[in-house]
Amino acid sequence: MSAPAYVLRGAGLRRGATRALAEIDVTVTPGERVAVIGPSGAGKSSLLSLLNGANHPTEGEVRVLGHDLAQLSARSRRTVQRRIGTVYQQFHLVGQLRVVHNVNAGQLGDWSTWRALWSLVSPRDIDPAREILGRVGIADKVLARTDRLSGGEQQRVAIARVLAQDPSVILADEPIASLDPERGKAVVDLLTGLSRTYGTTLVVSLHDVGIALDRFDRVLGLRAGRLVLDLPAAEVTSGLLADTFSTDAARQP
Amino acid sequence: MSRRATTLLVVVVLAAALASVAGDGDLLNTGGVPALREFFAAALHPRVDRAFLQVVGDAALTTLAYAVLGTVLSIALGLVGGVLVSQTWWRASGALPRTWVSRWLATRALMAVPRGVHEVVWGLVLLSVLGLDPLVAVLAIGLPFGAVCSKVFSEILDETPRAPFEALRASGAGRLAALLYGLAPLALPDLLSYSAYRFECAIRSAAILGIVGAGGLGFQLALSFQSLRYDEIWTLLAALVVLCGATDGWSSAVRRRCTGSRARPERDRVLGWLIVAAVALVPVSVVLLRLDPTVLVQDRARDLTVTLAQQAWPPEADWGVLVSLSLDTLMMSVIAAALSFAGAVLLAVLAARPADDGRTVARRVLGWCTRQALLFFRAVPSPVWALLVLFVWFPGPLAGALALALYNVGILGRLMAEAVEDLDRRPQRALLAAGVSPARAFLYAGLPTVWHRFVAYGMYRWEVIVRETVVVGVVGAGGLGRLLAEQTASFHYAGASATLLALIALTFLVDLTSAAVRRSGSARLSSRAVRSRSERAPGYRRSPRTL
After folding, report:
1. Of A115, A145, A166, which residue is a domain's last?
2. A28 with A127, same domain?
3. Residue B333 Cα, gap to closest chain A Cα (Å)
4. Are B321 and B393 in contact (CB under 8 A)?
5. Is residue B363 very low, low, confident or very high in pLDDT (cuts 50, 70, 90)?
6. Is the ipTM of this complex over 0.85?
């Protein structure tokens, strides 16, 4: 069996006086499909920010694909980060650019600065970008301006950007919270399907518990920054869920 | 116009501009290199004896006082004018649409005339009527700035949500009362923000006005230049840098707290004190300048005005020369705008300090140095840049363009850096988290987002630059400005009025072009883009006005 995708040991994150995460112990094996659930403010986004290296833990240790990102130089850290693709609730695309540029932005880590600069003037790699967009079902939008697309299409562009990056891990932070239920389900199916096809590790934070139980192997439950649930999806009971989402419990320190 | 066509047009215009001014013979005058070296060497030993510092201190206070009073006058004029030029005001007059629209357009056109003429030209005209009086500088700043304020204030009033105003009108309130209670409070942050920006422009104008004889730091600079006392020049420039730096800092703080990233809904104590401090300067300035407004109503001023008007009308000119000089001036402004735009984009990226990224120490030091360089570029008045350029360059439009570009890089660079700092950083952070280097993340997720603001700033600046060509022309850098300086020096007022008309026509042309380009840029932002942008970044406001 290959090395784990993630190993978190006693990981915690403080932001000023507030404690966003505490004492998280989790191991994720490659190819696993993990859903992270919990009420708003439980620390789901903070957890994902530790997993993609946007933040480093203030306590404990986070090993990403075998590396402790906090110990690496900026350059080596970027090399590891290129293997982690992240999809965001608000997409974080550049609306003023054409879709092809937003897709190619995923592989900027591999391009030289000159190539990146020139591509903005005269787009490079249109055909590969179109192929990737085909995988998410919007190949015809390759030259459209990104802010002209609907919300669902924009989230597909964001996923295409991650695919262009060709990552070992895909993280998605509330990828469907800005979409209507039907489009949301389609996006989750797209992500899990990609994970099955390419063996990519998938970690998705979700509000919708039904989708989490339905479409993922494993469910992590967060409450007030602590891990309160870590079970295969099939073993999660309504009593355990009530615990995770109990607002009374969440108010306790 | 499609993007490709716009790009092509820009390239053609630039090429034509360069060809037209670079065509004739020698440009570089290598004989001036030693003098320039001497000038920069003097930076190491500026004159700092007590007597001269006293002079510099007095001059700095004078310049500050001009700027303060000029700004106050322009805000007062702008508030009255802004209401009178606003659509809201005319629409509420109760007249038929056909009537009010034509009245509105007529007032607007009237305001465009004082705006078309640079402060220095106002200064030259007022000098010949009022003589050497501190009022000259105050009026020379206040009148054209007042017209600019009117235009901008009216746009602010028209863009402010009108529902409370309409509600008050519907309940029987008068036009002015409804405006004061229903519209002005909503528009206040924008009005304050723009007034602060005007003050920082006024400081630079006050310095330039000094050079044409109005006193203050600019006047001392001109004296020291005539006697080639480079050590004195550096002391004076240092004073200007301090004065400009302080004003810019004040203005940035006020603007950020009114409409920018630091705007808060609750009462802002710091903002209050910043404004109190500025208002306290007003009575001090009046006393300091020993201002006597009665000069304006004395017979002597009236007689001189009448004589001047009689001499200046009808305008007479060699129209062929005028057209060719107008073309020179236009090309000069295009080159200056293009050079300063390119330089400003590069420097702004270095100068900006975004809120949250972990920049290295070296990067911070580089950013600080760039910001100081930008401050120096804009604190040195454009005529001084022109004199420096003329050490090593033969007089002509290209020399003027270079001087204007150097000066405007400082202004544009700072505005663009502020735009970069106000950016929504999340798309960039998304790329950084994917292992993209900071430079490339900015290229793909930062630059495309601010680009339309950069272009809008560049176009606004071009409008200002075409007016400023007069300033460098006055010290001999070519174009219509040089002709105007010669004509006023030889009291050929009929010729001068013709030149002025040509200048005003030119500024109209540039204003129209710039407005068209800015509109086409903002039209590309679809309504969805605008909506989603405001949803994504609550702190993000529309581009600040920098006319």
Report:
1. A166
2. no
3. 26
4. no
5. confident
6. no
